[in-house]
Backbone:
């Protein structure tokens, strides 16, 4: 710190020399023109004011002293001595000296204030420009680009940020004092740090009360004044970028849903028109007559298979839609036993090499459920049971009915779900290792089936495998809800 | 066989489907004209009179609903059957609102289509005051307000009778919930689906052999009900099991 001090002394000496020369010249002028004390006094005061305005306080004070001395030597009787005869002259000289010193002090302080204000204004200007530039930065631009305006506007030699969320360090400029490490250390310690000797200042970046990262500067001017606002701006900028990324990820997801929906709609039409054509043509062949029994059978096969493909497409689309949309059941009173019995028959016909058995407990009664959705959920369970069990094995359906609601349980043997996958099977798009080996599927079936159960206020879960229950068992529970009262209808 | 030959206009932008329908419908005894778009269909209807129009909903240019409304104005006596896709249930409601007499859902069997077409042809004949309607084992006498199954009287409450009589008079037609509520309960009703469901449940218990697998009163998902005559081979086929 000695160097700047010496430099300012040298500067004061220069100012004093210049002021001294000016004082000498004016003294000569006033003396030759024989201007008395009353004129010379104000002229010296003028010099002191000028000196205060242009030089520093020390030189101005010295010049004030010099001016007082000259005034005494050249203009106060007896001349050419420092003696003063009259008390009024002594008073005049004293008041001159005091006035000069007060002026000097005031003007110097004013100048310091002005300088400070100017610096402050400049800093505000730069901060303003920085915030403008950060605002106009493309949020998708690379992370490093946002450091550049800091360097340009604040003349730092190096700048580093540490992102606590990603653990990434970013730097701009070259540091001689391990700026990046110091920045990271400040984040880890959760404390700001500054090293005047190295010219390094590091601030933690905060969002609310949470420290999200840190920013460090090397050779920043007026670090105490500037680091705070710079860190605040950086926090705000990083937060904005983060918000933008989150929002664009969300809008990309929404866009993907729009595409998905458009594709589903197109599929519905595009698949069904050719199927309609096949069915119309097959029907036409039959109507044209003159078919032998075998040809007739083949026309039947074409019709029934095309129809099946149509139903499969519908079901796939239905599941895909339910995956996307909120499930809103349209409740009706259903005879659950009849519905389950009917589906068991259907699956027995479709899978003749599985032994499908149905056990019913409790009194048959009606429950309110959405018939289409309930069938869809149950068929999902039956499909899985049939698909993943080997031929010749049994599939048990159990229906339990009590006042609290009803439970349908579908079990198959000959396959199992690894413990590691049990938690995942109800996840959207999850397909187990078995599923991938065995058969095609969307990975939506169980997810949608559970969604349907939940929409009815019920549950669907995998019953843990044990000695009494080998294989895979799913249990679908739907609680009773108040039935639409018939007497209310007749009363109306 | 419809006789004399019924004239039908097939409107679809898909050439292969149009061709298959033409061949098959001709083989089934209809006289068939084709239109490739809604605009062509309107031209055809202006020039010639048709008994039936089979109209696809999803076409470039004028869509099926708009064409349906205009055909209703140009040719009020023609029966209109619209072709919908199952996954767009709301299309059925819109089709009926646009003035269609019925709809078929793609993909459909030829027999299902011809059954719908013939049922529409039967219904668009000039209405006569119906006193007695028969369907399967059922016979309803609207004047004496008596329902019989196999000659045995079944007791019905007044609203039950009104509902069944209305449905039997509109045999084979798709009946929207709102239509039924208006007809039986009055114009101020329309949202009280639960009334309708409760009454249909009672009626099914009284007239169906197996109320959980009804043969007479069929549910049209999202739309309403359809009364069917199980002993009529031309009547609407039973809904198929979902695969």
Residues:
């Amino acid at each position: 710190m000695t160097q700047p001090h010496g430099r300012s002394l040298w500067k004061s000496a220069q100012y004093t020399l210049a002021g001294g020369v000016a004082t000498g010249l004016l003294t000569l002028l006033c003396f030759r023109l024989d201007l008395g004390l009353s004129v010379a006094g104000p002229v010296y005061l003028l010099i002191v004011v000028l000196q205060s305005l242009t030089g520093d306080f020390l030189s101005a004070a010295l010049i004030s002293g010099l001016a007082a001395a000259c005034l005494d030597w050249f203009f106060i009787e007896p001349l050419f001595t420092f003696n003063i005869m009259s008390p009024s002259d002594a008073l005049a000289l004293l008041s001159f000296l005091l006035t000069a010193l007060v002026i000097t002090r005031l003007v110097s302080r004013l100048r310091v204030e002005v300088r400070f204000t100017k610096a402050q204004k400049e800093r505000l200007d730069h901060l303003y420009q920085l915030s403008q530039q950060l605002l106009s930065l493309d949020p998708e631009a690379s992370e490093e680009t946002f450091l550049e305006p800091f360097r340009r506007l604040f003349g730092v030699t190096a700048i580093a940020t540490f992102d606590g969320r990603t653990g990434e360090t970013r730097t701009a400029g070259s540091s001689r004092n391990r700026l990046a490490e110091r920045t990271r250390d400040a984040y880890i310690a959760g404390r700001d740090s500054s090293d005047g000797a190295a010219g390094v200042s590091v601030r933690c970046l905060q969002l609310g009360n949470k420290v999200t990262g840190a920013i460090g500067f090397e050779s920043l001017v007026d670090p105490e004044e500037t680091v705070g606002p710079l860190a605040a701006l950086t926090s705000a900028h990083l937060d904005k970028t983060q918000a933008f990324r989150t929002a664009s990820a969300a809008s990309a997801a929404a866009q993907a849903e729009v595409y998905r929906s458009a594709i589903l709609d197109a599929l519905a039409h595009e698949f069904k028109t050719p199927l309609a054509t096949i069915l119309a043509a097959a029907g036409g062949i039959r109507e044209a007559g003159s078919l032998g029994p075998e040809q007739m059978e083949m026309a039947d096969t074409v019709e029934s298979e095309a129809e099946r493909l149509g139903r499969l497409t519908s079901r796939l689309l239905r599941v895909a839609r339910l995956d996307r949309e909120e499930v809103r059941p349209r409740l009706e009173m259903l005879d659950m036993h009849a519905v389950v019995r009917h589906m068991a028959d259907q699956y027995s016909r479709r899978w003749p090499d599985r032994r499908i058995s149905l056990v019913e407990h409790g009194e048959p009664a009606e429950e309110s459920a959405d018939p289409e959705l309930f069938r869809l959920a149950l068929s999902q369970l039956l499909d899985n049971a049939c698909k993943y069990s080997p031929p010749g094995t049994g599939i048990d359906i159990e229906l339990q009915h009590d006042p609290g609601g009803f439970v349908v349980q579908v079990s198959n043997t000959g396959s199992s779900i690894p413990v590691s996958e049990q938690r995942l099977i109800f996840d959207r798009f999850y397909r187990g290792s078995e599923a991938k080996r065995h058969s095609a599927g969307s990975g939506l079936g169980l997810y949608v089936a559970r969604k349907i159960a939940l929409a009815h206020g019920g549950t669907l879960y995998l019953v843990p495998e044990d000695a009494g229950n080998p294989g895979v068992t799913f249990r679908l529970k739907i609680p009773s809800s108040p039935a639409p009262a018939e007497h209310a209808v007749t009363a109306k | 066989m419809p006789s004399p030959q019924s004239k039908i206009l097939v409107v679809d932008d898909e050439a292969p489907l149009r061709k298959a329908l033409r061949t098959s419908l001709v083989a089934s005894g209809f006289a068939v004209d084709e239109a490739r778009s809604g605009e062509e269909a309107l031209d055809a209807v202006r020039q010639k009179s048709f008994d039936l129009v089979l109209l696809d909903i999803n076409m470039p240019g004028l869509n099926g609903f708009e064409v349906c409304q205009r055909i209703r104005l140009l040719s009020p006596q023609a029966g209109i059957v619209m072709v919908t896709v199952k996954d767009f249930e709301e299309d059925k409601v819109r089709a009926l609102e646009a003035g269609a007499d019925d709809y078929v859902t793609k993909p459909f069997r030829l027999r299902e289509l011809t059954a719908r077409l013939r049922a529409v042809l039967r219904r668009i004949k000039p209405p006569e005051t119906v006193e007695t309607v028969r369907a399967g084992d059922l016979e309803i006498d609207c004047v004496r307000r008596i329902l019989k199954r196999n000659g045995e009287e079944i007791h019905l409450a007044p609203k039950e009778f009104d509902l069944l009589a209305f449905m039997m008079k509109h045999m084979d037609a798709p009946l929207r919930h709102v239509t039924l509520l208006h007809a039986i309960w009055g114009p101020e009703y329309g949202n009280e689906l639960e009334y309708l469901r409760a009454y249909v449940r009672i009626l099914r218990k009284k007239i169906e052999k197996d109320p959980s697998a009804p043969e007479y009163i069929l549910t049209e998902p999202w739309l309403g009900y359809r009364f069917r005559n199980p002993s009529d081979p031309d009547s609407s086929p039973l809904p198929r099991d979902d695969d």
Summary: Chain A has a mean pLDDT of 83. The first strand of chain A starts at residue 158 and ends at 163.
